[in-house]
Amino acid sequence: MENERILEKLEELMAQYGYSKYKLAKLSGIKKSTVTTIFNKRCTVSLYNLSLMCKAFNLTLSEFFATLEGEPRRESVQDFPLEWWCSLSQEKRRKVATIMFAMAGLIDKE
User: Fold this and answer.
1) What is the pTM of this model?
2) Which whole number is the average pLDDT over 22-41?
3) What's the half-sphere exposure (Cβ side, CA atoms, 13 Å) at 10?
4) 34, HSE (Cβ side, Cα atoms, 13 Å)
């Protein structure tokens, strides 16, 4: 999945909820400078930061990705195992996110 689509969806949600970058940073617990850098420089969003942003919109990661695919929000979406994810150290989260993004890139090329 392209990073640009993820950022566009986040911006759409921000507009829908009336969130500024500052408010998204406050609600997600991410530094405002990090949020600003992600959006202004169109940087790749880590899975960890994306999960924090999703929480600010009361969404799970699976619900967020389902909205990108046009699937219903809750009825047919299996939740990402956030409890497991939260139990990982930050370094392990970074490694898992790297693997997931690499796999997504391979899948998109097929």
Assistant:
1) 0.61
2) 93
3) 29
4) 15
